Amino acid sequence: MSTIPTAPADETPLLQVRDLSVSFLEGKKKHLLVDKVSFSVQAGQCLGILGESGSGKSMTCKAVLGLLDKNFEVTGSSLFDGGELIGANPEKLRRMRGSRISVVLQNPMSCFDPLYRLGEQMEETIAEHMNLSSKAMHSMMVDILTLMRIRDPEDVLRKYPHQLSGGMLQRIMIGLAISLDPELIIADEPTTAIDSISQYSIMQEFVRIKKAGSVAMIFISHDLGVLSLIADRVIVMHRGRAVEEGTAESVFASAKDAYTHHLISQHKAVMNRFLMAIHGSSTREVVA
Amino acid sequence: MKNYVIMRLLATIPLLLAISFLCFVFINLIPSDPAEVALRIRQTPIITEELIAQTREELGLNDPFLVRYATWLWDCLHFDLGISYTNPARTVLGEIGRCLPATLELAGLSLVYVIVLSLPIGFLSAVYKDTWFDRIMRGLVFAGTAMPVYWVGLLLIWLVSIKMDLLPTSGYGGFSSLILPAFTVALSYISTYIRLIRNNMLENMREDYVLYAQARGLKQRAILVRHILKNSLQSCVTAIGMSIPQLISGTIVVENVFAWPGVGRLCITSIFNRDYPVIQAYVLLVGVLFVFFNLFFDILQYAADPRLRERKN
What we know:
Chain A has helices at 57-65, 90-96, 108-111, 118-129, 134-147, 153-157, 166-179, 196-212, 224-230, 248-253, 258-279, 284-287; strands at residues 15-26, 29-41, 46-50, 72-80, 83-84, 101-104, 184-188, 216-221, 233-238, 241-247. Chain A is of the alpha/beta class. Chain A has 2 domains: 1-100 and 184-257, Rossmann fold; 111-181, no CATH class. Chain A has a 6-stranded mixed sheet with strand order 6-7-8-3-9-10, with helices on both faces. In chain A, helix 5 (134-147) crosses helix 7 (166-179) and helix 7 packs parallel to helix 8. Chain B folds into 2 domains: 18-92, no CATH class; 100-282, MetI-like (MetI-like fold). Chain B is built from 13 helices and no strands. The chains are: A alpha/beta, B mainly alpha. Chain A binds chain B through residues 65, 67, 94-99, 102-103, 105, 107, 110-116, 124-125, 128-129, 160, 162-163, 173, 176, and chain B through 207-209, 211-220, 222, 226-227, 230-231, 234, 305-307, 310.
C-alpha cells in the first residue's frame, strides 16, 4: 500500500520519498522489510514516524542515509533537494551525512567510541566537513556545548563517554547534529534510552530547534505522546508498511486504520493507568 | 595508576612463592636418587653405597625437605641456581645464560612474524569478509591451527631446505638459519591471532558507535582503523602478554627439530640426563616469565583503556 503525500502546492518538499522498499538478502531468499513507503518533509516541518520496534521505521531512514550494506536491496526513489539519494555515489552520500543531513540516534551511551574523549570525537566530525584552525575548532565545540546548556564545556570535552550520563551524551549528539547547519535532521528514537527527566529536556531541545524554523526534521518514535509534542504530520508504520498518514491531530483524533486505533487506545490505557497511579486512591482493581 | 602498579607488584610475591614451591616439589617427586644420578653422569667407574652417601652429603640432600627448599629459594634470590650435575664446572645460571640468547632470538623473530602477518591479514579478512581472500585465509588458519608444530617443522625442512635448497636445514648460524624455526614456532600463533582480530573486528562492526560514526559522515577507512581496529586490539593486548612467555617456552619442540642451541634443548638434554638443578631452573624461569609478562601487559592495558583506569580508582 502506498500513500501519496499531499504536500502543499506552494512549496516543493526538501525530501521526497516515493515507493521506498528495503529487502534483506539472505542467499537467494529475499525478506521484505519496508514495503513501498512514501512520505515527504519540508523545511521547517517535522514528520513523525510512529511504529513499534521491527516495523521498519529505522530501516527506512537508514536506507535514505545510505547506511545499509550490500546485504540489503533498496528500491524506489528518495529525492533530497532535487538529487536522488537511492543508488547515489557512496562518497557523495558520506559528504552529505553529518553536514547536510544529520542524525540523532537512540542509545547515546553506546554511540560514542569508548576509547576517545568527547572532544576528539566531536572534532573528527567537524573536521570531516569543515576546515578550521584548532583554535576556531575548540571555540566552536565549546559553543555547541554551551548552546546545549551543558555546564563546564571545557571539562566535558576532556571526558570519556562512560564518564557522562545518557542525557548529557544525547544532548551532545543533538548539538553535534545541528552544529553544521543541516537542512534535515533525522532523530531515531532519541528519547527511548534515557530517563524521563532527561527525556523532557531533550524534547525541549528538539522543539527549540524546530521553532528556529529553517530545518526539516524526521522524528522516529514508538511513543505517541512524544510525537504529539513535535510532529506536524505523522505516518504510522506497521510490518514495513505505512498504514496511516496525515496531520498529527487528524491521526490522533480520527485514525482510520485498525492498527493505529490499537496504538492510540493502548496509549490512552497507559495514560489512564499513569493518572490513576498518581492520584492514588482505590484504583488497584480498576488497573487489574 | 601508581597505586595500581604497586598493588600488582606486591600481589606477585605470593604467586612467585607458590610457583617456586610447586616447581621444587615436582622435581623432588621424580623417583630416582639424585646422588646416584649425579655419580653416573660424572661417569664414576664404581658406585658404592659409601660414595652415594658422600655425594648426598655433598649435594645437601640429607637435609629435611623444607630446609632444602628454603636453601634453594634463598640461593635463587641471589641468582645462584646451583651447579649442573652433568658438569660440576658449570653453574646452572651460566648454562641458562649461555643458551637463553638463542631462544630469545627465535622467540623474538616469531613475535615479529606473528604481529606483521596476523594484524594485516586479520584486518583484511574482516573488511573483506566472505570474499575469496577471506575464504583462503580461513582455510590456511584452520590448517595452521590443526597441524602439530614438529610436523610443520619437518615439512618445512623437507620443502624449503631440501627440495628448494634455500635455507639451512638446522643448526645455529646467522639470520638464514633463524627463518624456518621462527616461522614454525609462529605459525599456530599467527592462526590464532588472525582469527582473534577478525572476530573482534566483525563484532565491533555491529556496535552502535560504528553506525553513529558512519552517520556523522566519517570516512570508512578512518572508522575501520581509528575506531574498529583500535577497539578490537584491546583484548589482543592481554593475549599477546600471555603469548610472549608461551613463545619463549614453546620453542622447546622446535629447538629439537632444528637442532637449535637454546634453553629448550638444554631442558630436554637435562631431562634425559636427570640433571635436576637445570630442569628446576628452567621450570622456574618459565613460571617467572609468565608472571611478569602478564603483569606488564595488564599495566599496559590499564594505561590504555580509560574505563579500566576509572574502575580501579
